[in-house]
């Protein structure tokens, strides 16, 4: 296996990006035990960033940390990804349509600030955090709590780090985010909702194609 570190972020985030990509591409089999010493030797790092990375990957649902066994790769297939992104596209469309009419001037100002943060960074991890905040804020004023709970479950079911997996994802997402923000500024909740849905579908399809 050829695991390559990228140039950005802190060491444990570099390691995490490499391991995440290897898991999603099937370099590790579901049920396989990830041995810290072997990963550390393969990547030329100490065990500490490996441990930190495995904890993060557990929070993303890609591995399970078991007593006396360590990190076990969880099953994740293309059908899972397709289901998660399709459901997100449908449910977030509903939530955005409910939320946009009630966004405050402060909310819209914060959306603009997050847009500027995403456009101004080349660091995927900075982009990812701003992107998560952007999507959270778009649906913040939705009053359907069950709907928001379903969306939160989907967000926790798959990592949001597509910029570390898809070349050009950050630039394309910035363009789509700007179109969504324009619709929000126009108070056109239907247009904003459709744009969000298309944005999520496009990302999901790109991710599936990249792992095919």
Automatic annotation (TrEMBL):
Which InterPro entries does the UniProt record give?
AsnC-type_HTH_dom, GntR_C, TF_FadR/GntR_C, Tscrpt_reg_HTH_GntR, WH-like_DNA-bd_sf, WH_DNA-bd_sf
| Keywords attached to this entry | DNA-binding, Transcription, Transcription regulation
Q: Which residues form the signal peptide?
A: none
Positions of the HTH gntR-type domain? 9-76
Q: Which SUPFAM superfamilies match?
A: GntR ligand-binding domain-like, Winged helix' DNA-binding domain
Give the CDD domains listed for this entry: WHTH_GntR (cd07377)
Q: Which Pfam families match?
A: FCD, GntR
PANTHER family xrefs = GLUCONATE OPERON TRANSCRIPTIONAL REPRESSOR, TRANSCRIPTIONAL REGULATOR, GNTR FAMILY
Q: What is this protein called?
A: GntR family transcriptional regulator
Top-level taxonomy: Bacteria, Bacillati, Bacillota, Bacilli, Bacillales
């Amino acid at each position: 296996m050829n695991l390559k570190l990228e140039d950005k972020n802190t060491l444990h985030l570099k390691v995490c990006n490499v391991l995440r990509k290897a898991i999603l591409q099937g370099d590790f089999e579901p049920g396989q035990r990830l041995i810290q010493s072997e990963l550390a030797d393969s990547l030329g790092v100490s065990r500490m960033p490996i441990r930190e990375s495995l904890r993060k990957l557990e929070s993303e649902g890609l591995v399970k940390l078991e007593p006396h066994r360590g990190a076990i790769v969880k099953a994740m297939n293309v059908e899972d990804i397709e289901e998660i992104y399709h459901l997100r596209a449908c449910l977030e469309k509903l939530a955005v349509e409910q939320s946009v009419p009630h966004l405050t001037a402060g909310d819209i100002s914060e959306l603009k600030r997050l847009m500027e943060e995403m456009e101004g960074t080349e660091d995927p991890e900075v982009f990812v955090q701003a992107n998560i905040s952007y999507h959270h804020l778009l649906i913040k004023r939705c009053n359907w709590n069950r709907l928001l709970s379903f969306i939160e479950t989907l967000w926790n079911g798959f990592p949001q780090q597509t910029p570390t997996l898809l070349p050009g994802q950050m630039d394309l997402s910035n363009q789509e985010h700007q179109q969504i923000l324009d619709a929000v500024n126009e108070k056109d909740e239907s247009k904003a909702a459709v744009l969000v849905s298309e944005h999520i579908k496009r990302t999901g399809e790109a991710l599936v194609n990249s792992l095919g």
